Amino acid sequence: MPVPVKKAAPSTDRRREGRIDVQAAIEGEDERSRSIASLRRARDRERRQQELQRLRSGAERVVRDVVVPEAITVQELANRMAARGGEVVKALFRMGVMATLTQSIDADTAELVVQEFGHRVKRVSESDVEIGLEGAEDTDTDLAARPPVVTIMGHVDHGKTSLLDALRKTDVVAHEAGGITQHIGAYQITVPDGSKVTFIDTPGHEAFTAMRARGAGVTDMVVLVVAADDGVMPQTVEAIRHAKAAGVPLIVAVNKIDKPGVKPERVKQELLQHEIVVESLGGDTQEIEVSATQRINLDKLLEAISLQAEVLDLKANPNRAAEGTVIESKLDRGRGPVATVLVQKGTLKQGDIVVAGAEWGRVRAMLDDKGRQLKDAPPSLPVEILGLSGVPSAGDNFIAVENEARAREVSEFRQRRARDKAAAAAGAGRGNLTDMLARIQAGEQKEVAVVVKADVQGSAEAIGVTLGKLGNDEVKVRVLHSAVGQITESDIQLAKASDAVIVAFNVRATSQARDLAAKEGVDIRYYSIIYEVADDIEKLYKGKLAPVQREKFLGYAQILQVFEVKKIGKVAGCRVTEGVVKRGAGVRLLRDGVVIHQGDLSTLKRFKDDVREVGNGLECGMSFANYDDIRVGDQIECYEVETVAAA
Question: What GO terms fall under cellular component here (predicted)?
Fold first, then answer.
């Protein structure tokens, strides 16, 4: 009798609950996949649990307004939420985004992360980082008197630096190559009545037009220095134009009155042609007759400046974040990036975080024009600051900001914008450069390409202006690249690729760059005076003027017979009647004294051998490149073209 099989009782093992086999998974996939709503509920549950834990630990949850630009790094986003960077990376990982702390994420992703952390999102466009960078307008009650900023302008060698020298009782000229001011200098002096005056000394050479324009842009008044012996010169007129464009008052200093036989009245008459009417002729422009070398009437000049400053009623708020202008900048080998800035509003303090153009940094040290360390710089004081991340451009605004994050954000935005502009310009010019080189090789266009490296921004800019004026319809002078600092290997590579010459103004090449230049045959020219740059490049471009093509007669040959040769075509059996004929030379086919074809000689044979040339009286066979219409009795004229350099 079969033993009845007992049915197994239902298992109480719950470990297999929820497990499914492959078939069930395939069949019930849609039912089991989690919806976005369920994911959100799970996240909300996690968030509530985290809040509960915070409440139990006594920590109060802080909801922040997080500003999210169009692109932001993960670390910066974590900083703005006051969260750990690792937590943000984990949150991104859960969302399927693999990113490190230094990588940038877009605004949409950043917004999801901010919501995940329970904060409020404030979306802004990328350019909004500059909104509110400059402080609010000052009220009259906040303003205090400030010293005037005076720019000294005038023609080259009219005594501007000597005049400032006499006022400062120091010798600036002795340190300038060739006695010419190469850079903008800014100085503050205390006048006998105890008040202060800030002077900006701009170079007078015409190449520094842009620098003078910038000097007029930050100044309250202009002292126009005119030599009594020379009178009004071209750069004097330019200085007048800059002062008028800036809308600043003018004081005329007629210099060199100690020279015998000078007539200051002539200067005043010449100024009338440019609508400058001095007080002695019934106008409203103050004029002072001075001598910088003999120190004559310097006190009267300072009185005139003080009087003009009283009329202008110059004021600024010293109790606010500093704002101003970068007057000059350079890369110092020992100190790093150094910028000379003129404080125009507020007070700049050591330790302030500043944004200067596309660069930012903490002011590690401030020095005045005498090299003394300062703790703070009030309005109208020019100072050298150290601690920037890079060299800003002369003329850039600088602003003290509240923290490093803001400074970095503004700096990164400006650098990105500059890179985009440079990329767009390079993209636009890439095809043109190839075309240009092709045109040069074809003789259709000549160009002298120049790479400029200088010790300071102003000099680089000035050389660019000078070189821009050179050239004519036939030859162009083009500045490919202009920058501050020593010559590097990348400069040599650029010059090599573009067949350019490197102009080094008060800078030298690194040893690696020097070796590369020697290897690649790149010409580096060193200068310390701007006139010499213009003279040398002018000689260079004149050397590249399209040379004169001069024709040199070689000989005549008479066609005696015409043969048909396979693969070559018609070959003329000739006798040389005068001079010589050469293979590869230019030929003309004359029929009855008229030129019917001009081209090149492709074949020149004597018997069955190819020869380079055939002399007078000998017979030979000739064929023309791409031309067959030759007849017995035709005459062949052979010539060479000589290239003679343009005078």
Answer: cytosol
Residue 645 per-residue DSSP state:
-
- Residues making up the binding site for GTP: 154-161, 201-205, 255-258
39-76 pLDDT per residue, tens: 778 877 877 777 666 655 555 567 888 888 777 889 88
| Binding site per annotation, positions | 154-161, 201-205, 255-258
Fold designation for 323-413: Elongation Factor Tu (Ef-tu); domain 3 (2.40.30)
For residue 460, how many C-alpha atoms fall within 13 Å in the half-sphere facing its CB? 24
The answer to whether the CB of 268 falls within 8 A of the CB of 287 is yes
Phi, psi of 223 (to 5 degrees): -100, 110
122 strand-pairing partners: 67
Give bridge partners of residue 198 from the DSSP assignment.
Answer: 149, 188
* Angle subtended by helix axes 74-81 and 85-94, to nearest 10: 110
How many Cα atoms occupy the beta-carbon half-sphere of 521 within 13 Å?
Answer: 3
**Secondary structure element (H or E) that encloses residue 375, with its range:** none
According to CATH, the superfamily of the domain at 143-316 is P-loop containing nucleotide triphosphate hydrolases (3.40.50.300)
The residue extents of the domains of the chain are 38-129, 143-316, 323-413, 445-543, 548-644
pLDDT digits over 179-228, tens only?
554 555 788 888 777 788 888 876 644 445 555 555 556 788 888 888 88
Domain covering 548-644 in this structure, CATH number = 2.40.30.10
Q: Which 3 state secondary structure label does DSSP give 175?
A: helix
**Same fold? 323-413, 548-644:** yes
Closest to 268 (Cα-Cα) out of 258, 250, 280:
280
Q: What is the mean pLDDT of the chain?
A: 78
Of the candidates 560, 550, 569, the residue with the CA atom closest to the CA atom of residue 636:
560
Interatomic CA distance for residues 435 and 291, integer angstroms: 57
The whole-number pLDDT of residue 420 equals 72
3-state SS record for 278-298: EHHHCCCEEEEECECCCCECH
Name the 3-class secondary structure at 360: strand
Q: pLDDT per residue over 325-357, tens digit each?
A: 888 888 888 888 988 888 988 899 999 999 988
Whether this model's pTM surpasses 0.70: no
Residue 399: which of 320, 314, 328 has the closest Cα?
320
**DSSP letter at 315?**
E
CATH topology of domain 445-543: Rossmann fold (3.40.50)
Q: Is the pLDDT of residue 543 over 60?
A: no
